[in-house]
Amino acid sequence: MQRVAGVLAIALLGTALELTNPVHPAREAVTFVFTGVEDASPVVKSIQDAVTLATVAADIPLERQSNNEAVFTLDGALAIPGLYKLLVQDGKTSKVFHATLTTSVSLSSAVVQGINLPFGSTLSSVVNLTPRDTFSVEVELQDASTLTPVVAHHAVLRFAHESSVDATIVLEPYQATAMRAVVSVASRDLLSGLHTVSLVVGDIHFHNALAWELGQIYVELPPAPPASPTPLYTTPLLHTSDTTLQALPEITHIMRPPPTTPPPAISIVFTALVGVPLVAFVGGSLRASSLPKLPSSVAGIVWSVAFLVSLLSVLALFGLYWLQLDMFTALGYLGVLGPVIVVTGQYALAHVAARTTSPRPKTD
């Protein structure tokens, strides 16, 4: 029952076998340590190069060191730099591990824009480039121990613009042992201005990565043509604010300038000129010669007074409209006072006409 439970646990949770030290220097004897070993005689079934799948060694027994630990040593002659797959069998279970054997590398040669540069030095002057120019870098790497050529899996040129915008160009293999990049200014996303160029080289089996500042270049690009206007209704109204990665220009509204007004003295003079006819009208209506023409009956006097009051109310409404009322409010009040003026004026004039046409008493 315990054996069945162990098999079920391994099937559900996976084997506890682990490789504790997957990274080692190459070209020397390498001892791999495994923990979680359960079988009495575990075996490394095969060691393969992860790239070429070539078998380096096979059927290597593990030496038990303790209850759950086992080791095996790979001969230094077989410890070539690279990435390897180790298939380990522990009883009825097996597991694949990845191990890396590293080596130190160095630059054997570097040609930057046709100039041989020793590692660590920089270009003596800034290289000026136009859209018709190219920038070329060619490097060769070698194993620091054997001086044999090696090719890095990862090698890039980094162009750091003065505005903190970077561009990277990958170096491609060239003539089996070298790597090269020919950067066309017109076809790359390089900004106009000063760039600091750096070379970064690395690989999974390199013990040391290489980072080298090559120098500076100045890219002079013509100004970009103005963008053609977007046809109407092809993009949302907030497309620019939704897609921009920088601050938009501040929106400034141009208001209509206030109308110019005349000096206060001129305004007072014209106001007085407008008020003169009104004063003349009121004065003429109240002069003594017109009072005898008022009707003598009580009804006539009431209608006449009502007419004068409504007329003065309209004049007061005009004054309020000038000072504080708006047009719609003033028209509403005028709609109420208008019929009152018509009715009272009609009856008042009728009584005045009746008095004027009535026969006067004869005197002897």
UniProtKB/TrEMBL annotation:
Locations listed in the record: Endoplasmic reticulum membrane
Pathway annotation from the record: Protein modification; protein glycosylation
Membrane-protein topology: Multi-pass membrane protein
A GO term from the CC aspect: oligosaccharyltransferase complex
GO BP annotations, alphabetical order: protein N-linked glycosylation
Signal peptide residues on this chain, from the entry's feature table: 1-25
Domain Ribophorin II third as annotated: residue spans: 115-217
Residues in Ribophorin II C-terminal domain copies: 256-355
Keyword line: Endoplasmic reticulum, Membrane, Signal, Transmembrane, Transmembrane helix
Entry keyword annotation includes RNA-binding: no
Predominant location: endoplasmic reticulum
Superkingdom field: Eukaryota
Keyword Membrane: yes
A Pfam family recorded for this sequence: Ribophorin_II_C
Chain ranges passing through the membrane: 265-286, 298-324, 330-350
Protein family membership: Belongs to the SWP1 family.
Role: Subunit of the oligosaccharyl transferase (OST) complex that catalyzes the initial transfer of a defined glycan (Glc(3)Man(9)GlcNAc(2) in eukaryotes) from the lipid carrier dolichol-pyrophosphate to an asparagine residue within an Asn-X-Ser/Thr consensus motif in nascent polypeptide chains, the first step in protein N-glycosylation. N-glycosylation occurs cotranslationally and the complex associates with the Sec61 complex at the channel-forming translocon complex that mediates protein translocation across the endoplasmic reticulum (ER). All subunits are required for a maximal enzyme activity.
Protein name from the UniProt record: Ribophorin II
